[in-house]
Each structure stands twice: as structure tokens, then as C-alpha cells.
Amino acid sequence: MGNVFSRRVARLNTKAGKTYQEMAADCGFERSVTWWNKMRWEEIEIPPEPKLYPHLAKALQVPERRVAEMVAEQWCGVRPDDNVPEHLRSLLAMLEGVREEDLPIIEQMVQALCDKRAAEVEVAQYSARLLEAFGEIDGPYTREQLEFLKLPELYAVKMDVAMGGGSVEEDAHFLLDAIPDAEDD
Predict the structure, then answer these.
(1) Whole-prediction pTM value?
(2) Which of 76, 77, 138, 143 is found 20 to 30 A from 116 (Cα to Cα)?
């Protein structure tokens, strides 16, 4: 359980750049700028009344049902008994308003994002293994090895070579030469 209501306010304020004044205006000033500030810092001990949920939903940019869930979790310690991660709850509540004929588009987008994440994890694993293997190789780094590395790892190899800790095959130098030096950033 957690202070999900307060975290939502904090997320909107810090990541989306939404001010407390904008939140107060979005809810028709049913809650003051000071209230939003105190909510963000978890200083509000009394939950908002249900009649305010429509106004708070607009300010928090979530459906009214999600406001009720956040209030129940933050102040009553109760949350829906499901396995939906916290960062997806607001999204799930918004999806209730999607027309059925639009679902294939959303499913394709979600699948593409999942595939992207899986690919990123796989690249990171290979990259870590390859970088680990560099420490076990006595010979120079090959072009094929360097092509699998991400920029931070290429920079580490470039620094290693510059400090005399390793060498690079002739046809791999162009990869390291393309990386700017730290002072060029």
C-alpha cells in the first residue's frame, strides 16, 4: 500500500510540469493551491469527499473511478485485488473508454512496446557478456565485438585503448574514432 494519490500529484508536478495553481484551476478551485502542495508532500490526513472526485479527476488527469481507487488505497489501505502494477492503473482505467474496434490498434502498440523492451533487455545482456569477455581476451578487440556495444561501453573501450590497456584491430579503429572525447561533449 502507499500514498498513490500524493505520488500522482508529485508525478504531475515534477515530470509533467503541472503547477499546483493549474491543479487548483483544473478542479474549479474546489481545492486550493496550498491543499495541492500539502497533498504532494503527504501532509493531508483527511481524504477528499466523493463529491469532489469529478473535479479531482480532471486535475489529476485520470478517470473518476481511479480517483476513488487512489483515495481508498492512500487513506483506507484498500486497493483492488488484482495484479495490475501501480504504474499501469491509470492507463487501465482510461482504456475502459476505448471503443472495441480500436482495441487491435492498442494491442499492436502495446506488443511493439513489449517487443522493444525485450530487445533492449537482450541487447543489454549480450552487451554485458561481451564487455565481460573483453577482460578475458588477450588479443585486440575486433570490429565484430565493438559493433555489439552501446555508446557508454564503446567509450570505456576507447579509454582502455588510449590508456594502453587494450588494442583494437585495424578495421575496428573507425568505430572508436567516431566517439567524441570526454572534453568534446
Answers:
(1) 0.51
(2) 143
